[in-house]
Amino acid sequence: MEAVKTKEGWKRERSTPSLQEVYKSMAVPTLGSSFRKFLAFAGPGYLVAVGYMDPGNWATDLAGGAMFNYSLLSVILISNMMAILLQSLTARLGIATGRDLAQACRDHYSKPVNFVLWLLCELAIAACDLAEVIGSAIALQLLFGLPLIYGVLLTSLDVMLVLFLQNKGFRYIESIVISLIVIILICFGAEMIFSKPDIGGIFGGFVPRAEILQNPEMLYIALGILGATVMPHNLYLHSSIVQTRNYEETEEGKRSAIKFATIDSTVALTIALFINAAILILSAATFHTTGHTEVAEIQDAYQLLTPLLGTGLASVLFAVALLAAGQNSTLTGTLAGQIVMEGFLNIRLKPWIRRLITRLIAIVPAVIVVAVTGEKGTGDLLILSQVVLSLQLSFAVIPLVMFTTDKRKMGALVAPKWVAVLSWIVAVIIAVLNAYLLYGTFFS
């Protein structure tokens, strides 16, 4: 692909896009209804949304519901609103500049800074991948009695699935991701029926309360929910995969693309909000109301669902949803790994090599921990993965907000003033809260 002249705010010409094999591979109708255009743009938001419902989220949601009933639903709602805002910025960056977030960082920062940012991002992807590998292995153990170490090794096969689907076309990856999200939705819809939650309590839980800030235990779980909800690698991923659509390279065409990409991610993240809320509601209705307030491990929740709800189907659906969530997240994690390596370092490996490296980085520590500590170590590993993600988050959010609010870099498609103000407020809140979370993890 030929280099493209850039706006004066960028130091160099736009380079070859990441995921070049699927760049602008999907047609967008120039005529016809808005609904047809929306359907053409629907897909990337769902790949992003799976990161907001991965196994790392399950532990914090389960603990929040078991300990504090419905009180922390407001935290899930606020975290999700932050995510919607940030993902809209990533779509704007990718479409307006033709750069993903990693490429934008490579253009703006010095080589040493870029190398550090890449290293931190790779660490975050490995941590996220680790949570997904462990989650999938736990699901396979719960469903089929497969030893955890075999389940961890079995997850490596998803590399072949990603390669097979991408060779067929990017729409195939989007289709399987959406199908798995539908499975998760069906499973938790049934769980809601089985658990018979308190509707009044649910609506009350979505109202923020001062107690969350005043109660140290509640605040710590709330910060864990925030850290598990907003995923740094999703910001890099989304800014790249929105460019799989063949929109017109005019200001009007890009404005339209930004609008539909934002609608796509907002709808998808609203579904993620329902799923995260459903996990917490299930935990509150099943465990908190029966006095099982210490449930935080996925395996414990699985074992208790059947006797407490009176049906074996509840536990099976829980494990099926966990497996779907884990597999979905590994698909997007491997894509994110390819994007950040190409974007930060301009190193282009064959997709199968890049994905094999990503998978090995996650599988090796998971195998070691499972082999040494058995099942008991998996819960600690999940928590550690969320702490690492929290550490990386601000290093992705602050550059994103800085670029998309800079008129020299974005031109006429710069984020509106009100969006810019909100974005900086969110960036500061995330930085402060995650710093507090890390302090609490290591020193409390």
For this entry, give a set of tags.
444 residues; mainly alpha; two-stranded parallel ribbon; 20 helices; globular; disordered N terminus
Descriptive notes:
This protein starts with 25 loop residues before the first strand and ends with a helix. Mean pLDDT is 83; it is low at 1-6. The chain has 444 residues and is an all-alpha fold. The radius of gyration is 21 Å and the shape is globular. It has a two-stranded parallel ribbon with strand order 1-2. 76% of the residues lie in helices and 1% in strands. Helix 3 (55-68) runs antiparallel to helix 12 (216-229) and helix 9 (170-195) packs parallel to helix 14 (251-286).
Summed up, the helix count is 20
Strand content: under 5%
What is the typical, i.e. mean, pLDDT? 83
Instruction: Give the % helix.
Output: over 70%
Cα separation of the termini: 53 Å
SSE string, helix = H, strand = E? EHHHHHHHHHHHHHEHHHHHHH
Main sheet: strand order: 1-2
**Strand tally, please?**
2
Rg from alpha-carbon coordinates: 21 Å
Which runs of at least 5 residues are low in confidence (pLDDT < 50)?
Answer: 1-6
What is the structural class?
mainly alpha
Query: Main beta sheet: strand number and arrangement?
Result: 2 strands, parallel
What is the overall shape? globular
Nutshell version of this structure?
Helix content is 76%, strand content 1%. The protein has 20 helices and 2 strands. It has a two-stranded parallel sheet with strand order 1-2.
Detail the topology: elements first, then pairings.
Elements: E1 26-27, H1 34-41, H2 44-49, H3 55-68, H4 73-97, H5 101-108, H6 111-144, H7 148-154, H8 158-168, H9 170-195, H10 199-205, H11 211-214, H12 216-229, H13 232-241, E2 245-246, H14 251-286, H15 298-309, H16 312-345, H17 351-373, H18 376-404, H19 407-410, H20 417-443
Helix pairs in contact: 3-12, 3-14, 4-12, 4-13, 4-14, 4-18, 5-16, 6-7, 6-16, 6-17, 6-18, 7-17, 8-9, 8-16, 9-14, 9-16, 12-20, 13-16, 13-18, 15-16, 16-17, 17-18, 18-20
